[in-house]
From TrEMBL:
Native source species: Vibrio fortis
EC code(s) of this entry: 2.7.7.60
Site entry: Positions MEP for the nucleophilic attack: R158, K214
Annotated positions for site Transition state stabilizer: R20, K27
Family note: Belongs to the IspD/TarI cytidylyltransferase family. IspD subfamily.
GO MF assignments: 2-C-methyl-D-erythritol 4-phosphate cytidylyltransferase activity
Keyword Transferase: yes
Biological or metabolic pathway of the protein: Isoprenoid biosynthesis; isopentenyl diphosphate biosynthesis via DXP pathway; isopentenyl diphosphate from 1-deoxy-D-xylulose 5-phosphate: step 2/6
Highest classification ranks of the organism: Bacteria, Pseudomonadati, Pseudomonadota, Gammaproteobacteria, Vibrionales
Keywords assigned: Isoprene biosynthesis, Nucleotidyltransferase, Transferase
Protein name (database record): 2-C-methyl-D-erythritol 4-phosphate cytidylyltransferase
UniProt KW DNA damage keyword: no
Amino acid sequence: MSTDKQGIVAVVPAAGVGSRMKADRPKQYLTINAITILEHTVNKLLSHPQVSKVVVAVSEGDPYFPELSLSQHPDVVRVKGGNERADSVLSALNYIQESGLGEWVMVHDAARPCIQQGDIDKLIEAALSHPVGGILAAPVRDTMKRGVDGQIDHTVERANLWHALTPQMFRTLPLQQALTEALEQGVSITDEASAFEWKGASPALVAGRSDNFKVTQPEDLALAEFYLSQNKE
Ligand code: CTP
Ligand code: MG
């Protein structure tokens, strides 16, 4: 199965403040090897042959984005981000639907610059042949505990537990509808798949690389720099 000739539209939520990074600016604008994390991420998506456009959700009044050459790229579109990640994603989906940009979207966190083309290929193949769509995910490796008041309540069975990563790939219209409804009903939505889960659907889990992690805390920067240096594509 293949996508229509318009290709897949990538959505990059990049409107967060990065509070856990404790830096002087949102983490997506911190620099690794001379370019920002956001540029690393968007460049990876733009260089994939099946990705036709990248829609980036950016905070209103963000002074950093217009400074990037990326903001002038013909295949990059800026839309307004929202209060929560799901609001930022929905803003991009509304734009894509209004402008008829594409049937399939791939949502990828700005803060995951270490994504590799091979994982994007795997996700596309799996999502296109699944009735709902799919997400990259990594099996949990540590023993998992449920804590109560700082003490262990019990061990959670690790088999079948996965870390939900991005990209997450779905048809644009059903994702827009599921997200809109879930947000209207006040459901907490932390990734795209959870909007479908809430509707009773089961997206595919596609085993991806564990080095596609989300840059979150200060100590993550050195690790991202290492992986990016190892995997120049
Ligand atoms: N994001 C967004 N809009 C928001 C919140 C988050 O577009 N209102 C984006 C972030 O920019 C990031 C991705 O969603 O690329 C994942 O979110 P997270 O890692 O939590 O980033 P922040 O919210 O910026 O960080 P923190 O939670 O530490 O404040
Ligand atoms: Mg956050």
